[in-house]
Amino acid sequence: MVDTGATTSTILDGDCARLGLNCEELEISDVPTETVGAKIYPYKLPDVAFIFIDTKNELRPEILESIDVIEPTDESPRPYFSILGMDIIKRYKRFVYDYPKGEIVFKR
Q: Is the pLDDT of residue 35 over 80?
C-alpha cells in the first residue's frame, strides 16, 4: 500500500510472518512509530532494496539503509500488505494511480 502519511516504508506483521523474518535477529529501533491506537518500537531490517519495473521493462532498484518491521503477535491483524512510505515516494516528482490497469506509476 502506498501511504503518503507514513514517513518510512514498513513491513507489516502479516508480511513479516509470510516472509519468515525472525525479529529476534534484528535490532529494535530507538525511534517509536505511531500505529492505529498505539506507539511501538519496530525492528529494523538493514540493507533493503525495492525493485521496480520501469516503462522499458527494466529493473530499477531503490536502496534503503533499513526498513521498519512490525513483529507479528497473537493479537495482530496480519494484513496482506505492507507500506511504501515517503522515504521512497519523495524520490519521485509525482506518482499516479492508473485505476483501470491497477498500476501505480512513479515519475522522476
A: no
Rounded distance between C-alpha atoms, residue 13 and residue 25, angstroms: 16
Share of the chain above pLDDT 70, in %: 100
Strand partners of residue 38: 35
Q: How buried is residue 2: exposed, middle or buried, by Cβ count under 10 Å (0-12/13-18/19+)? A: middle
Q: What is the DSSP track for 33-64?
A: EEETTEEE--EEEEEEEEEEE-TTS-EEEEEE
Side-chain half-sphere exposure of 11, counting CA atoms within 13 A:
22
What dihedral do alpha carbons 72, 32, 26, 10 form, nearest 10°?
60
The rounded radius of gyration (Å) of the Cα atoms in the chain is 15
